[in-house]
Amino acid sequence: MKAYLANGLFSLGDRLVNEQLAEAIRQAVPGIELYVPQENGAINDKSAYADSTSIAEADIEMLQQSDILIAVLDGVEIDSGVAAEIGAFSMLNRPIVGVFTDVRQQGRDNVKKIEALVADGMENQFVYRNLFVIGLIKRNGIITTSIEEAVKAVQEKVK
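Structure tokens predicted for Nucleoside 2-deoxyribosyltransferase:
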């Protein structure tokens, strides 16, 4: 089983999430070949040089070889590279596990929050994600709300 982990990789927070998620998946799914772009020094050593074409070709090759995509959806918006990877991978009709841990998902049953949103769209207590990207994930996959849930989803897809 080959898998691809998509997330931003430039901030400390993103790199730490990638490390935690990759470690959890590797421990839970023995033998999985998990590609994590930040571990590919040939294209992501920022003291070196890799042009846009070499980055695209390296990542597309790994996406094409993967059986599953694990995509982190956190941040102010879905990382543009992650959204592109989701789009490219969705064309392969293979499963995608989205990982969305934003705490604003909580309280969806809170009537006051819903009434406030209806009364004034600027009082949005919730979070928005691009519906096209979410739809691509849902076509063949699932969106999880924690690292643990994501690991379970990957384990289920491996069976």
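The two ends are 10 Å apart (CA to CA).
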